Amino acid sequence: MKNESHRWTLQPGALTLADLRAAWAAHFPIALSPEAAAPIAASAALVKTIVDKGDPAYGINTGFGILAKAHIPNDQLEQLQRNLILSHAVGTGELISDAVVRLILLTKIGSLARGYSGVRPVIIDTLIALYNAGVMPAIPVQGSVGASGDLAPLAHMTLAMIGVGPVRYKGQVMDAAEALAAAGIEPVTLAAKEGLALINGTQVSTALALHGLFMAERLVEAAMVTGALSVDAARGSDAPFDARIHAVRGQPGQIAAAAIYRELVAGSAIRASHLVGDERVQDPYSLRCQPQVMGAVMDLVANASRTLLIEANAVTDNPLLFPDDGAIVSGGNFHAEPVAFAADTLALAIAEIGALSERRIALLIDANLSGLPAFLVREPGLNSGFMIAHVTAAALASENKSLAHPASVDSLPTSANQEDHVSMATFAARRLDQMAHNTSVIVGIELLAAAQGVEFHRPLASSEHLEHVHAQLRARVAAFDADRFFAPDIEAARLMVVKGELSASCKELFAVLHP
């Protein structure tokens, strides 16, 4: 998108990951590129031609799914589209966050505006008006199997356009008709094909997966910073980060990760203090194999990024119209298998970030392994220190193991076996939020533990990067000198993780994560 006078101009099919991250992080007004007008008008005109001709065409003047053989008279086409939305709005569960709803709206606008969906300009204009006014459709997160599109959640999105059901507006849940009136937006009456075009598509599963992707990026950065800090806390070696080791293997993520670790620990006085005379030969894998594990994680994140960026720009409703030759073609772009696979690999990545971090916490609290006071407190016995904080980390790492089971290998036939294989992409994507929360807590606990550990080496300092992170933490959380109410400390550290604060001073190191 182009930034023109504080309004972003959306070029259909040309959204970037930077655009999507920006929309996820904050609300800003958008406008549609003028070049989109002609393709939109051409596909809408083709729908009108088909309706006027009267020949049956799926999604335009027929029933839906297995009811496609039912021909609908022209005077009932508006009612057909309204009925479609009302009957398909059957979602349940908690409401999707505004950040993800913005991504849903943005990607749906971009998809429809490519001019293959047969909607009138007023449909896209209304979606843009909702987006710009901050009228966020209330979309329940459950109810889609990720094939034939995200039908139920996108029906809830469309309800807001016709003035039915709840929305979130100015921080409150209210009736859509009331919010539209307050925002000066006219409800639309859906014409032939428009309801189907709005609810067919993978925009909900894609937006949820993008949320998981962006959280995974922050977790990668935070976990690499805390992992480097743990190396110093445990007086570990930086030799495993030697570039030559990783070059001879050749894995790109591993090579990039090792370079980041080298930079993070460069100049550490703690490391310098045990370069000579240290009896240990090798560190445990949770310290030594960080480039191998986190590099593989980075590769998975990069692969998911490529898939999800393509999908965010894709046309995924059905049938599709091709005005150049007047064709209307039924296919299956609504099948969200690419999104399901991307989400499943992100789940593996997020689970492994947390699993490796949990092992480093276990190492740091074990005096036999770390050489630090037991449970990172000066009077163990009287104080339990980090004992049960580690139990929380272990509980969440274990929970992530179950959540990481691939969703894409499951399928339940729906719509009287017309939709006989589905992707389960929406669940695959939505479970990433819980997994990311779990891992952010684990990494937050590691941050607290590693910061505590390096303090036992004072007056020796860690590297410049890591001392900056340490100072940021201590501005929010005091050192753990004796047992106290610990949950607020963990929450403060978790927020630093999810807000990207651990890497804020060294973003250039992680540029490889943000193509």
UniProtKB/TrEMBL annotation:
Subcellular location: Cytoplasm
GO molecular function: histidine ammonia-lyase activity
Organism: Massilia niabensis
The protein's name: Histidine ammonia-lyase
SUPFAM superfamilies: L-aspartase-like
Family listed: Belongs to the PAL/histidase family.
Main location: cytoplasm
Covalent link 5-imidazolinone (Ala-Gly), residues: A147-G149
Alphabetical UniProt keywords: Cytoplasm, Histidine metabolism, Lyase
Lineage, opening ranks: Bacteria, Pseudomonadati, Pseudomonadota, Betaproteobacteria, Burkholderiales
